[in-house]
Amino acid sequence: MDRVRGKIALVTGGASGIGRGIALALAREGATVIITDVSEARGRDVVGELNAAGSNAGAGPAAFHKHDVSSEQDWERVIAEIRTAHGRLDVLVNNAGIFIAGYLTDYDLADWKKMFGVNVEGVFLGIKHGLPLMRVHGGGSLINISSTTAHTYTPALAAYAASKAAVAHLTRCIAKDCGEKKDGIRVNSILPGVIDTPVWGGLQPGKPGRTAYDQPKPDLDAFCQALPLGRAGTPDDIADGVVFLASDESRYITGIELAIDGGSLLK
Question: Nearest CA to 267 among 147, 148, 102, 99?
Fold first, then answer.
């Protein structure tokens, strides 16, 4: 406990899956957590969980804001509300993302734009509007959730992989920018591998380029047997990495890609 006590943290896409796990871990370690998501009902439920998780760790009251990360107007509103409520932002986790598989020759342009709008433009807007508030207090930790697909070559996941590769490279560029400005902000990315969340269920046979690709749904357990650690990861595995990068334990770390993947990149 207390690894991020007193810090103000914003987690996008915090209403479910990896984002919920990240938010809960930060609250348990003492951070005051603000989550955003497009799902208002789930988001407000998670706020209750966050308050319970942080009650013994000195965390302030959690908050939820409905938020489409691809909307600049929404980002301006969310950051303004955090500025009014807290006056600063210490940790920003750009986690919100969507997954639409499909071979590029069958891919809908609308799906490409939608996925890049959330996965890439959402991160860009978070950086654009979050960094100035982080600089007010003299620094902080910016953490972008990329993916191991940024370094692998699966044809049916090409569009998703391209979006996550953009996030990984953008992270390194911004880390250098913050370093040159000496603004005290560390910028890192986390690359999850196969994580057991509802997203895995999106790999269904069906229309290529929208929700699926034209192969049978892979069996999670069978797929993970080929990994060096032999299992899928959990949201808690990613959350532990986020807490480390958000805490002062990582004070001399910036510009890295932290793969939390059971060794999948060794294949």
Answer: 148
b/e per residue 242-261 (b: at least 16 CB within 10 A): bbbbbbeebeeebbbbbbbb
What domains are there in the chain, each with its CATH number? 8-266 (3.40.50.720)
The burial class, CB within 10 Å (0-12 / 13-18 / 19+), for 7 is buried
Measured from the Cβ of residue 217, the count of other Cβ atoms closer than 10 Å reads 14
* Short-list 155, 60, 139, CA closest to 104: 155
Active site residues: 160
Averages of pLDDT over each 10 residues, the chain, 267 residues: 94 96 98 97 96 92 98 98 98 95 91 97 98 96 97 92 98 98 98 84 46 51 83 95 98 98 90
CA distance 20 to 75: 19
Interatomic CA distance for residues 71 and 254, integer angstroms: 27
> What is the torsional sign of CA 240, 246, 249, 254?
positive
